[in-house]
Amino acid sequence: VDLSGSMANKIGKVQAAVQSLLAGLEAEDEEFLVTFADRPALITPFTSDPSQIQSAFAFAQPFGSTALFDAVALAVQEMHHARNGRRVIFVISDGGDNDSRFSEREMRHLLDEREIQIHAIGIHDGAASREEARGAWILEDLAAMTGGQHHMVESAGELPALAARMSRTLHDRYILGYVPTPLGPPGQFRRIDVKLTRLPGRSRLYLYTRRGYRVP
Fold it and tell me: pLDDT tens, 121-170?
């Protein structure tokens, strides 16, 4: 969750987004909270009690610059402690980054090596700076490269229905797997291209997949 200074006039929407996502959790889910401004911080380690995150976030105050890439890297590191196989990071931010030690390229390489999906909720307003304008593209790219979704939100009233839809997407899924032949040399990036054929009389289909993976 982005708590940098650029979120000061959006903190109400950020709090609504957090509450809406927590409301969509199921009993077997576990969650943690990372916030970021000048530096990322692990506020709440993995827990099955959403009230711990609600309490930790209740008095959050935006300040400082934005270390988005560092926050994603910290969240990926925390995922090593996950018990569940399905691993998802929600990023709530305006998408800007101006203070990360991790470069965008390093972050991409890190995500290539992990089975983690990123869903981004972009909190934007009508007076976006140049940095925030690029931020929307960054969030879109983070979601696309990991097979997730990016949603831009202008009104807090959109959030409950959006969070409910995202929760259904996470809990209702199909898994496709394959073993490539040949496997390829370790460290090589292999692109994935999955296509759907629409059947007559069926509703519209949406497909979200990773762009590829790195051979272990």
Answer: 998 765 556 666 678 889 999 998 898 889 988 887 888 888 878 877 77
pTM attached to this predicted model: 0.83
CA pair distance 23, 201, nearest whole angstrom: 34
d(CA 133, CA 11): 18
Alpha carbons 90 and 53: distance in angstroms, whole number: 14
Characterize 173-190 residue by residue with b for buried, 16 or more Cβ atoms within 10 angstroms of its Cβ, and e for exposed.
eeeeeeeeeeeeeeeeee
Looking at residue 45, its amino acid is P
**Arithmetic mean of pLDDT, 206-210:** 75
Q: With beta carbons less than 8 A apart as the criterion, state whether 214 and 113 touch.
A: yes
